Amino acid sequence: MKGLARFEEFTERMGEGSFARLLGSRLQPVEIAKRLARIMDDRQTIAAGKVFVPNRYQVFLHPETLAEFASFQTALEEELAAYLAETAQRRQFAFIGVPRVSLRSDSAVKPNAVQIEAHITDLAGIDIEGPAELKQATRELRVEDIRAATPKEPFTLVLDDRVLALTQSRVTLGRSLDNDIVLDDPSVSRRHAVLVFQHGYYTLRDLNSSYGTQVNGQPIREAVLNDGDRLTVAAVNMVFRRGPRSPAHPVK
Q1: Could you tell me the pTM of the whole model?
Q2: What domains can be seen in the chain, in order of their start residue?
Q3: Which of 32, 102, 127, 251 is the most buried (most CB within 10 A)?
């Protein structure tokens, strides 16, 4: 239950702004997580001595239900995928590719109901049918390797007089003490933003924060970062650096 407890903590931490309205909703994010885990259990395929489970999940919700999650949909999809990854690791399941969860609108689904489609796909997104095709899959990525794509070159954040090395594939920023980078400023949300490393770049995502996130003075929901980009997390300024050189001046 450790993974589910962490997901519940995520929901509680996001009890700011639009997330607060979820407390009165009949459909809670944790219920979606439980349904996804059950689907994963039901769709096991044994091949090459391993138990494979789906890596692509589409969650269909009534438009009114989906609208409740609209302002933080990206963050929720990411947390649901992370929960599935942790659950699969505990159960020693394997994936082809990285697990992904997408929330979709479907007027045929009743309000507060959930319908899920799950598939095992190759890296091109094409469905894989049966053990024989699994054996021929172009690449197997075990669940323990899902977050192993870590930066190979130096990435840093310059914050005041500190230079913070970015070495993980996922780095959270916020006021809460359980973040990877804690920003002690009252304008910063408890769970404000996250840096995600993919395909050789860091992407900055706002997590439905109260006072927003900016890159080079422009409000963003999600943005790929380049060397020298100026980040503003609520009222906190910092600079993103890529490469071995150090910035000449700290962020003021």
Answers
A1: 0.55
A2: 1-144 (3.30.2320.60), 155-242 (2.60.200.20)
A3: 32
